[in-house]
Amino acid sequence: MRTFEKICDLRAFLKSQKRSDLRIGLVPTLGALHWGHAALIKAARRQNETVVVSIFVNPTQFDDPEDFKTYPRDFQSDLAFCERHGVTAVFHPSEAEMYPTPSKTRISVPELTRHLCGAKRPGHFEGVAILVSKLFHIVQPDCAYFGEKDAQQLAIIRRITRDLRFPITIVSVPTVRETDGLAMSSRNALLNPEQRRAAAALNRHLQNAQQLLKSGENGLEKIKTQLIQRIQSESAAEIDYVEIVDAETLQPATAVDRALLIAAAVYFGGVRLIDNFSCNFAKKDES
Ligand code: PAF
Q: CA torsion 145→50→91→104, rounded to 10°?
């Protein structure tokens, strides 16, 4: 496995891979790798001969400096993780390499950004968008892999890829969960045992709402109110948002006639976790 810190060295390496007609898969990460990332790497290895994992705690997407400071970092264990999972190259740039001067360029998709996490984390998705666009330019992968847990991020990256005409296939990978259903996240490591227990209930409450929708309940406000009450009954939980939205536009859902996303962001102590479940009620194309 090769490790690169400089953009020019990574580009030279990838040029040789492309000359040999090897397909390149990119897995962008913030590090603190876990089984969720392993699923992304596995999907990338299935479809590409060369798999690049970027490990970069991107300062521009952290709206809270304390969150940036405490975000888990363990590069040596991340490297070993990548080696074990058959990654071809790790890109681990410094902040100065990625942002030699403060970026004056902005990339944003206001229609998709102003709801859910975007409403509560000003600048977060602009930070993700600029970083992911830079990575797309640097690596020029055939495919890039993102988790479905970050549903809003995924929708925004799909839109940017389409709007900026990046010749890249965006591949989404289902959320990987702990045995009790808690969605895997690097932030889970920051939970104390009581918060960890309460956090595990979040996926059960979301699944319960999904079941209600699937069983024919179409009172969206009723389902949402019930979901909020259930989450609030967990002692360590403080709701940031709970929403049922159109899975593509991320606008609040008004009818049960399309793909819907039941999404929540909840604080357990100081740790903010997100999760979502989807239901597709779109009519099948019969043509
Ligand atoms: O989802 C993440 O880990 C990050 O937001 C990403 C896509 C690597 C950009 O920094």
A: -60
Question: What is d(CA 50, CA 143) in angstroms, rounded to the nearest whole number?
Answer: 11
pTM of the model: 0.93
Other CB atoms within a 10 A radius of the CB of residue 45 amount to 17
Q: Which of 60, 63, 38 lies closest to 265, judged by CA? A: 63
Q: One of 37, 85, 92, 115 is an active-site residue; which one?
A: 37
Q: Is position 124 annotated as part of the catalytic site? A: no
Q: How confident is the model at residue 287 (pLDDT cuts 50, 70, 90)?
A: very low
- Cβ atoms < 10 Å from Cβ of 153: 22
Contact 238, 266 (CB under 8 A): yes
In order of their start, the domains of the chain are 2-173 (3.40.50.620), 186-280 (3.30.1300.10)
C-beta separation of 87 from 1 below 8 A: yes
- Ligand 1 pocket residue status of 132, Cβ below 6 Å: yes
